[in-house]
Specification:
By secondary structure, the protein is α/β, with parallel strands linked by helices. It contains 15 helices and 15 strands. The strands form 3 sheets. It has a 7-stranded mixed sheet with strand order 4-10-9-8-7-5-6, sandwiched between helices. Strand 7 (about 180-185), helix 9 (about 200-215) and strand 8 (about 215-220) form a beta-alpha-beta unit. Helix 13 packs parallel to helix 15 (about 380-400) and helix 14 (about 350-360) crosses helix 15 (about 380-400). The chain is globular, with a radius of gyration of 21 Å. The structure holds pyridoxal-5'-phosphate (PLP).
Length: about 400
């Protein structure tokens, strides 16, 4: 059956507006479309393809598990799920793991856990959840309400209550709305969708202190920042601030859908049998792949490689900017980088994205003012250099109209 981009308009719900090209094959950081055009991938499936496309070790573990056991449901546990959980617990502050299939579901579990802990320990008045403007936590109704962009949560009727927003990196504003009624503060330790915004050290430490002061739980949404993306296994490690609950997804499966919520034994105890669940959560295929992803990423070579590749990106982007004067700054950490456009190009990130695609480079945006790169963490240096040469041509296109 022949399908094309037109088919999308004929059979799909129009909540997305995908690119005109349809990729059909990927290998490492290269992708080919229906017409055989080759692209360099700096998008990584939105910070997901942490080991590029079709990494041989992931393909092999997926095939092996695919011939062994696909699915059981949580009526049974399974070996890949238990091995992965052990490795996650060994590698982080956490002592207990809950599996989901996506970032939103991992966050949904985190929020429900926080509410249940507050209810059990302090009573129904302690229900306030605070999160930050521009933050993104997924698209279920609870998580999108906690997210800090009203445009995503408006227009669906009454929202879950008890949610309040504050400005990121404004500790005084947070202090003002926090009280003993605060159940949890949810934040990204590096805002992704909101524009690649790093927290100041003072802010993130201050949030931890305020949570301690008011017996509120600190939830780090590391769906985008986790699994090596910033050059640390999780961003909290680089910040030296430990949350009570951490969520992971995206990179965790390297392209196979999986999410996880990590927490302490004492908090986990509040989700007693029957209180929460997922049919697919922890399925053997996803967990087998994620276990391999974690094995590969959680190594000094890969994590140091991320920091080195970040520098290569920054040095080259600086040269491009010296020539064309388009960015106010290049920000972010590790291989989650944002080029924030200056006054002159304000609001035009999509133009750079379209020009990049024409130059056979896949990249992302984070709002109207930021071009975002979230490539494979093991992207070869040659592909970075070649991809940035394409990006320079795309910048020239936009600059020259
Ligand atoms: C992508 C993302 C989510 C949502 O993950 P899904 O898998 O799309 O549900 C949640 N939080 C952050 C920080 C994200 O970047």
């Amino acid at each position: 059956m022949q399908v094309s981009r037109e088919t999308f308009n004929e059979v799909m719900v129009p909540n997305y507006n995908p690119s005109a090209v349809i990729p059909v094959k990927g290998e490492g950081s290269r992708v080919w479309d229906q017409k055989g055009n080759e692209y360099i991938d700096f998008a990584g499936g939105i910070a997901v393809n942490v080991l590029g496309h079709c990494h041989p070790e992931l393909v092999s573990v997926l095939k092996e598990q695919g011939e062994r056991l696909w699915h059981l449901s949580n009526v049974f546990t399974n070996e890949p799920a238990l091995r992965l959980a052990k490795k996650l617990v060994d590698a982080t502050f956490a002592e207990r793991v809950f599996y989901a299939n996506s970032g939103a579901e991992a966050n949904e579990a985190a929020l429900k856990l926080a509410r249940r802990v507050a209810l059990d320990k302090y009573g129904p008045e302690k229900d306030q959840i605070i999160s930050f403007n521009q933050g993104f936590h997924g698209r279920t109704f609870f998580t999108v309400t906690v997210g800090g962009q009203a445009a995503y949560s408006d227009g669906f009727g009454p929202k879950p209550g008890g949610v309040q927003h504050s400005d990121y990196n404004d500790l005084a504003a947070l202090d003002e709305i926090m009280s003993d009624k605060t159940c949890a503060v949810m934040m990204e330790p590096l805002q992704g969708e909101g524009g690649i915004i790093s927290p100041t050290q003072e802010f993130v430490e201050g949030v931890r202190d305020l949570c301690d002061k008011y017996n509120a739980l600190l939830i780090f949404d590391e769906v985008q920042s986790g699994v090596g993306r910033t050059g640390d296994l999780f961003a909290y490690m680089g910040l030296g601030v430990t949350p009570d609950i951490l969520t992971s997804a995206k990179s965790l499966g390297g392209g196979f859908p999986i999410g996880a919520m990590l927490t302490t034994e004492a908090l986990a105890a509040h989700l007693k049998p029957g209180t929460h669940g997922s049919t697919y959560g922890g399925n053997p295929l996803g967990c087998a792949v994620a276990e391999k992803v974690l094995d590969i990423i959680n190594s000094p070579e890969v994590l140091q490689g991320v920091k080195r590749k970040e520098q290569l990106f920054r040095d080259t982007l600086e040269k491009i900017n010296d020539k064309y004067q388009v960015f106010a700054e290049v920000r972010g950490k590790g291989l989650l980088l944002g080029c924030a456009l200056n006054e002159k190009y304000k609001g035009r990130s999509r133009d750079f994205l379209v020009a990049s695609t024409e130059e056979k480079l896949m990249c992302l945006i984070a709002g109207a003012n930021v071009i975002r790169f979230a490539p494979s963490l093991i992207i070869p240096d040659e592909d970075i250099i070649e991809g940035l040469a394409s990006f320079e041509r795309a910048v020239a296109r936009v600059v020259n109209g």
